[in-house]
Amino acid sequence: MGDLVFNFVLFVLIYLIGFLSVSGFGKLFVNKNNLNYNKGNFFDLQIFGTIILLVSSYLIYVTIGTNHFINIFILFFGVIIYFFYKKDLNRVKLIHLIGLLTIILPILLISKTHEDFNTYHYFSIYEVFNNNLRIGVYNLNDRFFHSSHLIHNQSLYVFPYLNLKMIHLPIIYIYVSTIGYFLFLCFLNKNSEEVLFSIFCLLILLIKFNRLSEFGYDYIAQFLLLIAFHKIYFLINNDDEVIISIIFLLLSVLVKPISLLFIPLFFYVLVNKKYSFYKYLIKSRVLIISSLILILISSSFFKTGCFFYPINFTCFNKEQISWSEKEKIKDYSSMVRLWAKAYYTQKDSKYEKIEDESLFSKNFNWLKYWIEKHFFYKLFEFLIIVILSFLISYIYFTKHKSNVANKINKKLIFLGLSLLSILFWLVTVPQFRFGFAAIIIFSFIFLRIFLNKDIIFTKKKFFTLILIGLLVLNIKSIIRINSEFERNDFYTFTNFPYFNEIKIINNYKNIERSKFLHIEILNKKIF
User: Given a cut of 70, is residue 398 above it in pLDDT?
Assistant: First the structure.
């Protein structure tokens, strides 16, 4: 019992301290980029800090490699910055911040992780922490090439005694920050449209996305895109905020490259902003933007021999780059597209099976299988939650007086752009987790065009609504935690409060000896 209490207290302390630490590095981002952030959203700091730590952890990885001492130093250095670097940024009281983190804590208490975690996420973090740059590492694990860059941040949460038990923190921090971001808008914003969108997003986040065991990296990237959309839709006249939205888009691509499908929503920035904006962008943010792009390109090249592996023509042939796996990556990408379109679930379909892969992919032959196996399994329930969340938010706060349909042209433009993003998603990898941000945005704008009454926002009503959402989140989490204690398989919650950690044996016996020797040569330090 004593060990359980000690582990739980230690777990909670690191969870709280880590959040403050990342926010501390976010303050450095604000300072170095000369942002006037007195009126900015406090929870942006967490995303800024994630960017600083991503750049720092990647530099550590390609040079000296990280270790327990470096990780502890970074953790406490960020906390020191948070408390001693004021600059009018502490607009959220510490007690309120701790309260929010505590309310969300049950999500972090998991025994069973998602299936991909044991397959390659854990291995990828293990690899980054235990080694500095290893060129051609894709040859050691077929899935390592598409590991999220967030694994570098996660490698900073490997500590003595705890080992890899806290590596989910960078993921949960982005989730908490997304909730905090929209909460912040509700309390400090007088724009009824903005408040409606914030409440709408909050209800979806609390009701639908409350299982860390499902998150992976796909959900996290989509959360970042929701924040980026808020900035380009509601804060388009603020150059700083628009540039930050572009940086957040880059971060989401580093977390998950499929976020590139969101780019149509940024077309509005290209046509809306004048030339002076781009001069300002290049002058003021070139270092951080170029750093993120450089990480994206160099990491892909070192792993796979491609400048950007999702686009196959950026890959070198094996004759040009010895560790390149251009054809294997091409085949894997084709397999993922077939998987996303329900090719591999045809055996349980009511429709006649199509064996030929090219025929299955042609002329939307796959669509009926996808509707049967994915739409009604994943998307239909989500769309019900989205529509109900909007209607609850709208009816609960609406006026009886109709609003003039102002800025309808802007709504129609973004409706078209979000639809274009959805179409890109549909014809490439139409899995729910890769495109729900665009679906949320399209649904909000579409419904708002027809349900266009003003809303009267009151904090009392807001508290009631959000408390219900938080109650749903915690009830679902408590039921899940209890069920994990009652399991009788590997994932029984015997390691509370930590997830059930798989043991990684760092050997590669399944690799041809010649290939292994080749990799040993490639893995020499380059600095």
Answer: yes
